[in-house]
Amino acid sequence: MTLPLDDRQRAMLAEMGVRLFDGQGAAPPAALPRPATAEPAASARPSRPAGMTATPPAARPAEAPPTIADCPAGVDTMAWDALEQAVAGCQACGLCRGRRNTVFGVGDRQARWMLVGEAPGEHEDLRGEPFVGAAGQLLDHMLRAVGCDREHGVYIANVIKCRPPGNRNPEPAEVAQCEPFLRRQIALVQPRLILAMGRFAVQSLLGSQEPIGRLRGRVHDHAGIPVVVTYHPAYLLRNLPDKAKAWADLCLALDQVPLAD
Ligand code: URA
Fold first, then answer.
1. Which pLDDT tens digit goes with each residue over 121-149?
2. Which among 14, 25, 239, 248 is least surrounded, fewest beta carbons within 10 Å?
3. What distance in angstroms lies between residue 90's CA and the mean position of ligand 1's atoms?
4. Ligand 1 atom 7: residue of nearest CA
5. What is the pTM of this model?
């Protein structure tokens, strides 16, 4: 099937790294890796960049099992500053022992779209900002492809605000402990659409254990807000052909809620 694409759409796809197979100079996908059928969350996490060493604060073993304490009280009524401070000081689970920085969120606090990822990786932990590693660079390309960037039109946050040691998957108890922060961010932003990127975002927002492949392509609901499910950018880096599906997911999101009038 040939998609009728105009020059602008072609430019958008090029921005995302989606290659077209229409005889206009793009290579066929034969040399690309086979896409996995399900999104493998563990390996979808960004790995530590070469030359960077993780030095967790002394005398606090990062690999100790998580201990769960109470989430700071009153999160559900906090304003932005209080919420950011509560996250920065949170010691509700063991992830606080290994973090360099908490990773709160970034972007337009009145955004139409909210993008939800999983948890900070090495780069994010160092910078205190979500999606600044390789997956973040792809996400930036995806945002440019739909005409916005991380400061305009979207707000980006993770389910988990502290880096799990070694980029392991977050434990269910850690997710449960951190979720009130994301819930409050959503309540404050009041996005008109949420893009759930990857399986931990899906689990948290939709309460679903279904694989991404079964959930994408239709609109879900979180507390009355339309949710579009898509692959995590780190997964897309390893499964290049699925970028075309991510592009379709962005188009579905744009159909539901345009980023500009
Ligand atoms: N992966 C995520 O889910 N979030 C980040 O901030 C970085 C990588």
1. 999 999 999 999 999 999 999 999 999 99
2. 25
3. 19
4. 131
5. 0.81
